[in-house]
Design goal:
Layout (H helix, E strand, L loop, with lengths): L12 E9 L2 E9 L8 E9 L8 H4 L6 E6 L3 E7 L4 E10 L11 E4 L14 H12 L5 H5 L11 H11 L3
Antiparallel strand pairs: 1-2, 2-5, 3-4, 3-6, 6-7
The protein binds calcium ion (2 copies).
Length: 173
């Protein structure tokens, strides 16, 4: 007599932001999903890890290859902090109702987490990143993922301000 609650759909929106605390570059990401509309919805669980999931329903495979499960309550957004930069994370969400029934997973989304200034997403900021910022500025860099990480002050253009920022981060300033 277990009531089955609906599968929720997850829009693949992950906002990656970067916080710099002292010398430590801590990766963060914000995950958003669509609300489940059942009247007895009680909340959501977020599952994540650095390997893709191994199943589609926590009822049958429990953690299903993920390493962490967070009961986030009745919200549709969750911000992760202290993710490891340079690592790819995989995320899924499930819903649960007031009787404790858990849904199958949402679709899985993944994201490579990069620190601010870490243009090649290697896990550290250094000479390679400074060179990449210069290349973006000169227009010789064609990889969109590199270009998209280069506008550090989010003013819509890459210029010496951004290059200076990459240099400062590499120096720990
Ligand atoms: Ca780097
Ligand atoms: Ca800029």
């Amino acid at each position: 007599m277990s009531k089955k609650i609906k599968t929720i759909s997850l829009t693949a929106t992950i906002i990656l932001s970067c916080i710099i605390s002292g010398q430590v570059l801590a990766g963060s990401a914000t995950l958003n999903w669509n609300a489940n509309t059942e009247s007895d919805l009680a909340g959501y669980n977020v599952y994540y890890g650095t390997s893709p999931r191994t199943g589609t329903n926590p009822k049958t495979c429990t953690m299903c290859g993920y390493t962490t499960k967070v009961n986030v309550g009745k919200v549709t957004t969750y911000t992760f902090s202290n993710l490891t930069n340079g690592a790819t994370y995989y995320f899924s969400v499930s819903a649960y109702d007031t009787s404790g029934n858990e849904s199958a997973f949402s679709g899985e989304v993944s994201k490579l987490v990069c620190a601010s200034g870490d243009l090649d997403c290697s896990g550290s900021v250094g000479a390679v990143d400074i060179q990449l910022a210069i290349n973006v500025f000169l227009g010789t860099e064609t990889r969109q993922e590199i270009i998209s990480r280069c506008d550090l002050n989010s003013d819509g253009k890459t210029n010496v301000v951004d290059i200076q920022r990459v240099i400062n981060i590499s120096l720990g300033k």
